[in-house]
Amino acid sequence: MRREIDLSLLFAMAMMICFGVTMIYSAASDSDAWRSQALFAVFAVMASVAILYVPGKLFYDLAYPLYIVGLLSLIAVLVWGTGTPARWLSIGSVQLQPSEFAKIATIMAIARFLGDQSSERVSAARAVGIAVLLAALPMSLVAKQPDLGTAVSFGAALVPMLYWAGMRPLHIFFLTAPLLSVVFSFEELWGSDQAPIVFALFIILSSFIIQLLLARLWVTVTLLAVNLSAGLVTTYLWANFLRAYQKARIMTFLDPERDALGSGWNIIQSKIAIGSGGPTGKGFLQGTQTNYEFLPASHTDFIFSVIGEELGFVGAVFVLSLFLFMIWRSLYIGTIANNRFSSLLAVGLASMLAFHVFVNVGMTIGVMPVTGLPLPFLSYGGSSLLTNCLAIGLLLHIYAHRHEY
Amino acid sequence: MDPEVLEDWARKMRGLMILAGLLFAILLLRLFHLQITTGDDYTKESDDNIFTRKRLKAPRGLVLDRDGEVLARNRAAYSIMLTHGSAESDSQAIAALEEATGVSVHLGKRGRGQKRLRLKRDVAFPRTVAIVEERLRHEWPLDIEIEPQRLYPQGPLAAHIIGYMGEKQDELTSAHRRPYVAGDYVGQTGLERVYEDSLRGWDGVNYVEVDVRDRVINEHPLPDQEIPPQPGRDLRLTVDLDIQRAASRALPDSLAGSVVAIDARDGSVLALVSYPSFDPNAFVSYGSQAERQQLIQDPAKPMLNRAIQGSYPPGSTLKMIGAVAALENGITDTLSTFAACAGSLQVGDVVFRCFNRDGHGELNLLEAMEMSCNIYFNHLAQILGIETWHEYGARFGFGAETQIDLDPSELTGVLPDRQYHKEREGWVTGHLMNLVIGQGYMLVTPMQMALYVAALGNGGFLVTPHLQGEAAPPVRIEGVSDATLDIVRRSMYRVIYGDHGTGKRARVAGIEMAGKSGTAQGPRADDDAWFVAFAPYENPEIAVAVVVEGGGGGGSTAAPVAQAVIKAYFDDQARKQSVATATDAESGS
Fold it and tell me: B122 forms bridges with which residues in the sheet?
C-alpha cells in the first residue's frame, strides 16, 4: 500500500518551525533557547512522520485510553505539579506540560464519541451532554491549575466539532448564548452605565430572532430565562470565581494604561513593538523592544511581537497567511477523511490551531486578554512544539490513510 | 466512500473557513492599524523607550573678586535616582536602600512616561559611594546623577554681596527661552539674582540609549541632536576680598554694623560688609531647612544688608552738608565765628546740647568741625534755612537711590524738607538745627555716606556705586565750588590730624587722609558710632563709611574700623606695586 504524504502541510509545518527557531534566536540571541528548540523540532518532526506508520485504526482504539491517561496526568499536575502556577510535571530532568497533550487526547475522545453517533443523533441532548462532559472534565482540571486560556481552548475545539458532527447551528447558538450573555452583561467591559443597555439589547434581539425563526414560545422563553440568569450571575462570577490575577488580566486587557508599569506593561510594550515595526520592520535582530528587553517573554508567548517588530506588517501577514493555509489544509483533510472519527479529529485539530493563533496573536495586538497560550510552532517550548507536530502528524496520517477501509 | 458522510462536509468546511477568515481579518485589520496607520506613533514610543533625554545642567558662572579670588564656584552634587520598575518594585528598592545605608528617602509619584524619580538630592560623597557599591551587589534599580551645585568658599564673608540661591518649586517652561524646571536653583538675592541671566548659562541636551533596566547601551546614539551646555559667564567683581576681610575683622564682634568702601574716583565697590552675616551655603545644601529658618527668624537680622538697607541717623558725619551750603551762600567762612559754645543753646523752649557740656568756646568752621561742635552748626542752621540745606543734601545724593547693582533693592533713607515736617508735627526752625547735625528725621544708608564722602574728597563728583563692570561717568555736583570743597576738606583733615581732632584713631602711618566722626542718637539705647573718610588727602582713591549700631562714640568705635580698611587698601596697593615692579624688572632683564 502506497503511503501518500501531504507535502504541502508537511512543508508548511517545516517552514513554520524553521521560521520559529530563527525568531527565537533573534528574541533570545544570548541564550541557547534556539538551539534546544531546534533539537526539540528534530524530535517532534520525526515523531509526526513516525505517526504515518501507525496502523489505521489504532488512534480510534486508543482514543479513550489516551483520554484517561490525559485526565490522570492533569490530576497529577494538580498534585505534584511544578512551577508557578503549577503546570508542569517533572520526570527526571524532563519537564512536561500535560495540558498540551491532553488537548489532543481530548479531541480524539470527542471525535470518537461523536464519530460513533450518526448525524441525526448528535443534536440529541444526551449526546451533546456527553460531548460537553468530555471537554469539561479536562477543562476544569486545567482551569484549576489555573490556566484559563488553555481551559477555554477545549471548549473552542468542541464547538466546531459539534457543528461538524451534525449539531444544528441553532442548537449551537443555544449552547453558547449563555456565554455571550456573560460577555454582554459584563460591567467592566461596557462600563457600569452602558452594561445594562447592551445586555438588554442582546436579550431582546436574540429572543426576537429565535422567536422569528422558530415561532415556538416555550423555546424563546427558555432561552430568555437562561440568558437572563447567566447575565445576572456574571457579577457573582466576577466577584467569587476569578482569581485576582485573572481579574487583573482582564481589567488590564480592557485598559492597559491603568497600570502601565505593572500588569499593563506586556500589552503596551507588545503593541509598541509591533506598531513600531511599520510596514517592513526594523530588520532581523534589529528590534529594540526585543533586544533591550522592553518586550517580556519575547521568545515564548510574545514571539509574534518580535516578528511584528523586526519583519513588520509584511512578516506578520506572511505568518498569518501560513497559519491560515494550515487551517484550511487541515479542514480540507477533514472533508476527505474516510470515516467520521478521522474527519472530526481533523476538524478538532484545525480548530485548536485556529484558536491558539487567534488568541495568541490577538493578545500581542491588544484584541484579546493576556493568557499563557503559546503561538503554535513559533513560541519556544518543547511540549507545545511536540503537541502541534503530533497534531500535524495525525493530520498527515488521516491524509495518507484516506483511501483505506 | 460513504456518500452519506461526504455530502455536507464541504459545505461545513466553507462555514468554518468563513469563521476563521473573519477572525483572521480582525487580526489583519488590527495589524494594519498598528503598523501602517499609527506606526509612526509607535515608532516614537519605541524611541522614547530606548532614548533617555538628559538635561546637562550648565555650570554656573564663577564669581571672582578683582584679584581673581573665588567667591562662588560649583561643586558636584549627587542625587540618588530610582530608575525603572513598578510601584511595588519601587517601594522594595527604597526599603532596601534605607536599611542598607540609613538614608531616609521620600518617594514621589511616578508620572506616566516618567522613567526616573529623584529619591534624594545632594547626598554626601562617601554615602553616595556606599550606595553605588550596594547597588552593584543587589542590582537595585538605582542610579546616581551628578549636577553642579553652588559652593561659596568664603562662607559668610561676602554673603550680602553674593546673596544666595533657592530651589524653584514650580516649572516655568513656556514663554521662556531657557525654561526652569522645578528643582532648579535660582538666584534669590544679591548678585546671584541681579546677574542670574548671565550667570546661569545655557543647559545642554544629551541622549543615551538604554535598555529596560536603564542600563546604558550607547552613550551617544544621537550625536546630531546633542547640544553641549554653555557655562554661565563668570562675574568679576570690583570687590577686593583683602579689604572685605579687613573690614569684617575690624568691626566689633558683639555689635551689628556695616562698612562700605568704594573707589572714590569711579564708585567701584571695594568692600561691602554687613554684620552679622550668614553662610549662603545653607541655602544651597539640600538638608539645611532648619538652619535657613533660623537665619530668617533671627532677631539680629543677619539677612538684612545693612549697607544698602540699613537706615541710620548719620549724626555729625552729615555736618559737611551744612558747611557746604553755608559756605556757598556766604553765611560763613574760615574765619567767622558765631556766639561761643557754652555746652548748650536754648531756642524758645528747646535746649540744644553740645557733646562737650563745658562748651567749646568761640570756634570758627575749621575748629568746629575738628571738635565736632554742635552749637556752631545750630547757629549756622538758624541762618541757613531748610530749603537751601535740603537742596545741598539732595545734590550729594541723600534721600535718593544710589543705583547700585545689588538686590534686595536699596532704601533711600530720608532727607526731610519743610513739607515732610508739616505733614507731621509742623515746621519750626529747631528741626533744621537737628537736621544739620544729622539728627531729627534724617536717615541715611552707609552706601549713601560713602558716595557723599567720596564726592567731598574727589573734587565734587558724585559717583555711581557698582560691583562689577564699567563705571558710569561721575557727575560733577552743581553749585559747589572748588573753594568751598577745599575749605571743607581742610576741616576734615583737621578731624584726623588736629590737636583736638575726634578722628585721630583713624590715622594710618604714611597716608594723609581726611574724615569725620559721628555719634548719632538713634532708636537704640546706645548711640550709633559713625566714621566717614577718604584717602589719600590729595587725589583720594578710597572712600569709607562705617557705622556700628550702639557703638557709642564714632571717634572711638568707628574710626579704628575705617583705619583698618584704609590700611588694608594701601597695604594691598603696595603689595601689588612691588609684584608689578618685580615682574617689570624680570621682563626687563
Answer: none
Complex-level ipTM? 0.91
- Chain A contact for B25, CB < 8 A? no
Rg (CA), chain B: 36
**Could you tell me the end-to-end alpha-carbon distance of chain B, in angstroms, rounded to an integer?**
124
Residue A187 in contact with partner chain B when CB distance is under 8 A: no
Cβ-defined contact of A335 to B13 (cutoff 8 Å): yes
Choose the mutation target among A263, A288, A309 for the interface with B, i.e. most B CBs under 10 Å: A288
Which chain A positions have a beta carbon within 8 Å of B5's beta carbon? 339-340, 343
Q: Does B525 touch chain A (CB under 8 A)?
A: no
Residue in chain B closest to A362 (alpha carbons) equals: B27
Residue labelled with grid coordinates 561717568: B473
Report the gap between the CA of A367 and the closest CA in chain B (Å). 8
Of B24, B27, B43, the CB nearest to A276: B43
Residues of B in contact with A261 (CB under 8 A): 85-87, 110
B41 touches chain A (CB under 8 A): yes
Distance (Å, rounded) from C-alpha A214 to C-alpha A182? 24
Cell of B566: 584704609
For residue B80, the distance in angstroms to the closest alpha carbon of chain A comes to 21
Residue B49 at interface with chain A, using a CB cutoff of 8 Å? yes
Residue listed under C-alpha cell 530610582: B82
Distance from CA of B85 to the nearest CA of A (A): 7
Each residue's pLDDT tens digit in chain A (405 positions)? 456 889 999 999 999 999 999 999 999 877 889 999 999 999 999 999 999 888 878 999 999 999 999 999 999 998 888 777 778 888 777 788 888 899 999 999 999 999 998 877 777 778 888 999 999 999 999 888 878 788 889 989 999 999 999 888 878 877 777 777 777 776 666 666 677 777 788 778 877 777 777 777 777 787 778 777 777 777 677 767 777 777 777 776 666 666 666 667 888 999 999 999 999 999 999 998 888 888 888 888 999 999 999 999 999 999 999 999 999 999 999 999 989 999 999 999 999 999 999 999 999 998 888 888 899 999 999 889 999 999 999 999 999 988 875
* Spatial contact of B491 and B366, defined as CB atoms under 8 Å apart: yes
Please list the residues that pair with B110 across neighbouring strands: none
Q: Which long-range contacts (CB under 8 A, 24 or more apart) does B136-139 make?
A: B138/B96, B138/B100
- The angle that helices B446-457 and B319-328 make with each other, rounded to 10 degrees, is 40
What residues contact B55, with CB distance under 8 A and at least 6 apart? Answer: B181, B203, B204, B205
**Look-up: residue for cell 415556538?**
A216
Query: Contact B212/A293, CB-based, under 8 Å?
Result: yes
| Residues B16, A350: C-beta atoms closer than 8 Å | yes
What domains, with CATH codes, occur in chain B?
52-167+178-236 (3.90.1310.10), 241-577 (3.40.710.10)
Task: Copy the grid coordinates of residue B76.
Answer: 558636584
- Do A301 and A379 contact (CB within 8 A), yes or no? yes
Q: Is the peptide bond before A146 cis (omega within 30 degrees of 0)?
A: yes
Grid-cell match 511544578, residue found: A82
Q: Is the dihedral of CA A140, A141, A143, A147 positive or negative?
A: negative
Q: Measured between alpha carbons, how far is residue B417 from residues B411, B422, B428 in Å?
A: 18, 9, 11
Count CA atoms closer than 13 A to B451's CA, side-chain side: 29
Portion 341-360 of A in contact with B at CB < 8 A? 343, 347, 350-351, 354, 358
Compute the count of residue pairs across chains A and B with CB atoms less than 8 Å apart: 135
| Separation of alpha carbons A306 and A288, rounded Å | 10
Q: State phi, psi for B337 to the nearest 5 degrees.
A: -130, 160
User: CB B21 to CB A324 under 8 A?
Assistant: yes
Q: Is B397 helix (H, G, I), strand (E, B) or coil?
A: coil
Ramachandran region, residue B259 (left: φ > 0; alpha: ψ -120 to 50; beta: rest):
beta
